[in-house]
Design goal:
There is one protein chain. Helices cover 46% and strands 5% of the residues. By secondary structure, the chain is mainly alpha-helical. Among the domains are: 1-76 and 92-232 and 561-589, no CATH class; 313-404, no CATH class; 434-482, no CATH class. Helix 11 (237-254) runs parallel beside helix 21 (531-542). It is globular. It starts with 8 loop residues before the first helix and ends in an 18-residue tail after the last helix.
Length: 589
């Protein structure tokens, strides 16, 4: 067979590695360096180990988005120990050929594994009926579908495009075959992902919640702890769908289709408000409510496990089982780490700038201390300490990575509410919180009072009384924590939001508030790989990429105007040539 066109060597190598994979071979992945079922259970099944193969590929690229977006984002800069590859990313170089950071092959590896798994799992059930259980197999299919969507959305947010294919790779393929492969821009990727989320796969919906401990340890009522933590590995349906819907809404607004965009924003509000409502109803601590007691907001301590605080979806690592990432290598100063990236002085100053971060003077914003630590007292040089656990040894590079955390759901809600023109609700969630809004109006703290308040104001109709805290409903259920808002929960002053005032149009107010949200993203999600894609999405909505360029270029000093111009010219995507137009006349057997 002749390989007529290829995607560049690294990705072609992935295809070759997966080439001629039989069903039996696929269900025997090499996972020694990642999630290894032997460490957790005595008897494995092929469905189980096959899915762990997908998870291991996710782990392999878990930290990649952080380097690709944060290095080009508003905060980080190379150190004197940095590499030419990182510096090329930082400098917005147009040609990144051969740059291992920029190479997207790892994400396509995840997609190939998902496609193979989806294609083979039904056949596997026929081959091994004694291992087949519809309840759990459908959960695995649904989980695999969401992993595939996550990989594609991540590709699109970084590169602005992705090569879409649904068939398994069982032999070397001609990538110009448009019946099998489509090069889609980000709008096309979002549409294709939404289709999968809406329609599922082979009759299986994309929103099934799969419980590892119910499957693997059904006789243990409380569930084996390790299996419970595995439930966090797969990207959550609500987080994925909300982010996709925000991208779709932004594209529709940019094209002047605000009414169509509103359909997606309304879906987001309905879904996320209900998700948090239900979480507070069934979980004792109510950590998702963004109350004062819900800290820590940023760190995922391995000692506490992801069941605590902010975790929605978390990629987990375990140094003792050879599951690692390279976050400490890049950010930590202790040997054997290499301290390749650091926070810029200009970027860090935003936390202490009362015009940018109201009430943040004298480093009153707790998020500053969670993210940054001085290398030596008085040195004036800082490192990113977000990914360092208590008592963690410098060689134990196994900190967890958030795919979604609860605060992100609040930001998604604010973005959707704002662009629906529900300005007061967006402002309340950003600043003082629903509980304080209720207190200001009439001090209601009961379910009936909250419902009456909703009816009288027409606000927060999708939100339950549990958001106001210490309120008892007809079923006797009380919320432990109140919703105190993004900023009030850490004792900061209100961020200015506009609400259709006399000097601006509603569209101008929406854009103003989106820009305020962009600034808060920079403070809340520093060095998590989430801020830069959010800035691009907000800029896309308003066809104004100065929203990205103004915030990013400041750290470049004398080169600020050069980087600003690159971004304004479309350089916000990581450039990577998939070499779809390159002819390869080599024969492949």
């Amino acid at each position: 067979m002749k390989l007529i066109k290829k995607i560049a060597y690294p990705f072609a190598a992935v295809c070759l590695a997966m080439g001629a994979v039989s069903c039996d071979d696929f269900f025997e992945p090499e996972t020694e360096d990642m999630l290894d079922g032997d460490n957790y259970m005595a008897e494995q099944t092929e469905m189980y180990t096959g899915f762990l193969g997908i998870m291991s590929r996710m782990q392999a690229v878990g930290d990649k988005a952080i380097y690709l977006t944060e290095t080009r984002g508003e905060l980080l800069e190379p150190t004197t120990y940095s590499t030419s590859d990182l510096i090329a990313l930082y400098n917005y170089n147009d040609d990144l050929t051969g740059n291992p950071y920029a190479d997207p092959a790892g994400y396509y590896d995840v997609i190939i594994a998902c496609n193979d798994y989806l294609a083979n799992i039904r056949e596997f059930g026929k081959m091994y009926p004694e291992l087949w259980d519809e309840k759990y197999s459908d959960g695995l299919i649904s989980s695999t579908l969401r992993v595939k969507v996550w990989a594609y959305l991540t590709l699109a947010e970084i590169y602005g495009q992705a090569l879409w294919f649904n068939d398994p790779i069982t032999e070397i393929q001609d990538l110009t075959d448009t019946d099998k492969f489509q090069l889609l821009d980000i709008d096309g990727v979002v549409d294709s992902c939404l289709y999968l989320m809406d329609y599922g796969y082979d009759g299986v919906p994309s929103n099934l919640v799969f419980s590892w401990y119910n499957w693997l340890d059904p006789d243990n009522a409380s569930g084996t702890q390790q299996y419970r933590f595995w439930d966090y590995m797969v990207p959550a349906y609500e987080g994925l769908y909300a982010k996709l819907a925000l991208w779709k809404g932004a594209a529709l607004q940019a094209a002047g289709n605000a009414e169509e965009a509103n359909v997606y924003y309304e879906q987001i509000v309905d879904m996320l408000a209900e998700t948090i409502n239900q979480h507070m109803l069934t979980v004792a601590k109510d950590e998702w409510n963004r109350g004062q007691l819900s800290a820590p907001r940023n760190k995922v301590w391995k000692s506490e496990q992801p069941a605590d605080y902010q975790a929605v979806s978390v990629l987990q690592y375990d140094y003792e089982n050879n599951q690692t990432n390279s976050l400490m290598k890049h950010f930590n100063t202790q040997y054997p780490n290499e301290y390749l990236l650091r926070p810029s002085a200009i970027g860090m100053a935003r936390w202490n700038d009362a015009t940018f971060n109201p009430g943040g003077a004298d480093f009153a914003d707790d998020r500053y201390n969670e993210n940054f630590t001085e290398v030596e007292p008085g040195s004036g040089e800082y490192y990113v300490s977000l990914y360092v656990r208590d008592a963690q040894q410098p060689y134990q590079d196994d900190t967890y990575i958030y795919l979604f955390r609860a605060d992100e759901y609040h930001f998604f809600l604010i973005e959707a509410l704002n662009n629906l023109g529900r300005f007061k609700e967006a402002e309340v969630l950003m600043n003082a919180g629903i509980s304080n809004f209720a207190d200001v109006v009439n001090g209601v703290k009961t379910e009936d009072g909250w419902i009456a308040l909703q009816q009288s104001t027409g606000l927060f109709s999708e939100f339950s009384y549990l958001w106001i805290g210490n309120a008892t409903g007809t079923a006797g259920t009380a919320a432990k924590y109140s919703n105190d808002g993004i900023r009030n929960s850490i004792f900061l002053k209100n961020r200015t939001f506009k609400a259709d005032d006399e000097t601006a149009t509603p569209q101008e107010d929406k854009k103003f508030n989106d820009c305020a949200l962009a600034d808060e993203y920079m403070l809340e999600f520093a060095v998590e790989g989430k801020t830069y894609p959010a800035l691009i999405r907000l800029a896309k909505r308003w066809n104004d990429y100065s929203i990205v360029a103004d915030r990013v270029s400041a750290k470049y000093g004398e080169r600020a105007s050069e980087i600003h111009a690159k971004i304004m010219a479309g350089g916000y995507w990581v450039p990577w040539d998939l070499q779809l137009g390159t002819t390869d006349n080599n024969e492949a057997e």
